[in-house]
Amino acid sequence: MGKRIAITGNFAIAEAMRQINPDVCAAYPITPSTQIMEKFSTFVADGKVDTELVTVESEHSAMSACIGASAAGGRVMTATSSQGLALMWEMLHIASGMRLPVVMTLVNRALSAPINIHGDHSDGMGARDCGWIQLWSENAQEAYDNLIQAIRIAEHDDIRLPAMVCMDGFIISHSIESMEMLPDDVVRDFIGEFKPKHPLLDIENPVTYGPLVLPDYFMEFKRQQHEAMLHVKDVVLEVAKEFQKISGRSYGLFETYRLEDAELAIVVLNSAAGTCKDVIDEYRDKGVRVGLLKPRLFRPFPYEEVAEALSGAKVIAVLDRAESFGGFGPMFMEISAAMLTNGSKPLMINKIYGLGGRDFMPEHAAVVIDEMKEVAETGKVKILKDYLGVRE
Amino acid sequence: MKGWRELEIGAITEAGSADNYNTGSWRAFRPQWIEENCIQCLFCWIYCPDSAITVKDGKRGEFDYNHCKGCGICAKECPGKKGKKAIVMVEEGK
Ligand code: SF4
Ligand code: SF4
Q: A346 is in which domain, residue-wise?
């Protein structure tokens, strides 16, 4: 059994990395993820891990070094936020295209301009199409658990794709929570040994990584990446089942909260889900049938399963902590697509909230539920996409 | 041609496969070796980004024109003998 401790999200991630003991970490500090590498570098200095820590001059170099180390045959990890992830962008595609199971923690933060260091999901959503698996986490416990599971998912023989674990900047990364940490040996046994495919350091069997591939073969390699993504759902569930055995905590593709008989459903990622659950309890006490769905696996997105879980809802409010200017929020687009797959036609609204770390308060959740009630009663959506908690 | 199921994932291929393609035709300028000015320092061999300088028994041989792109790096780096370059660049077709 694990040990219950008080810890911040960043330190929980650093502890998970210590237990995972990767071969190589290449990172460049950026708020709010800096503390992860700061803490991890003390583990390296104190000899608590065998990791080769590469301190590089930028995030572009960090991801480049991760790619090189992973192709060489190592188990590789890193962490970043916001502009750091943006600077990695071209290398993110190269990691996934070369099928390198690099695992990264993304501490979600807004993108400039104006410059802002606080939590929103613009960074992760911007990397939506980079071919990385994305797991999102409500709190430190989920981030810790997700990171350990991400190693198994990314390295699985049917997958071999990089994975990022997302958690909210400051709200989770810098807040102390109560969390259960697994024993070191249990984590090590769970993740097992990394078995690289075609490592460059196997000089007896030399290979080329990153050749030029022209229109005659390019699509076949993209089709392979799509195929790998199709296997992710099953592997996520299989790994979650095993993880439950060592931790007692159960994970799925998403979490539902009082959703079974709900007429009104909120869909929201990460820390704001916790706030929503409290407010849902208050409304349930008043007899309002409201529930919540919190996606965990965002890439690949489990469309059918999400649609099934939401199929009883008359009204769905999708809360997005990221903007697609001139479009709907990224989560709203996924939920709309999901609802098309099973033909149930709920009324839907999209709320943009919490940008640049703007607090998401219980009264904001209440505003959303009140509006959903009105939509359910009138059968009419007044404003499809709107901002929540913004001054006029 | 192979389908996606038959290909190795991630486009990982045999080592040194660039050797199988003749890419020298991209060249606009051709390096020319003037052997009497050559001091066999092998700078050209170290600097050539396309491994297009052949070396045998530690001695520089001819250019591999099937792979030389004509970048001119070797000509720039070549110290030559007494100020006389052992590599000069000549426009192709001339
Ligand atoms: S011109 Fe460039 S490619 Fe050709 S031999 Fe010289 S260095 Fe190599
Ligand atoms: S760099 Fe010039 S002098 Fe040196 S080996 Fe090459 S051709 Fe000869």
A: 254-387
Judge contact between A97 and A131, C-beta under 8 A: yes
Cβ of residue B52 lying under 6 Å from some atom of ligand 2: no
- Closest residue in B to A157 (Cα–Cα): B9
Q: Which domains does chain B have, with CATH numbers?
A: 29-91 (3.30.70.20)
A341 touches chain B (CB under 8 A): no
CATH number at residue A335: 3.40.50.920
pLDDT in tens, A245-280: 999 999 999 999 999 999 999 999 999 999 999 999
Q: Are residues A222 and A366 in the same domain?
A: no
- Whether A300 and chain B come into contact, CB under 8 Å, resolves to no
Nearest to A136 by CA among A16, A277, A294: A294
Count Cβ atoms below 10 Å from residue A202 Cβ, excluding itself: 12
Query: Is the CB of B4 inside 8 Å of chain A's CB atoms?
Result: yes
CA-CA distance, B4 to A221, in Å (whole number)?
A: 6
Residues of chain A in contact with residue B10, where contact means CB-CB under 8 angstroms, are 97-100, 160, 209, 221, 224
pLDDT tens figures, A150-188: 999 999 999 999 999 999 999 999 999 999 999 999 999
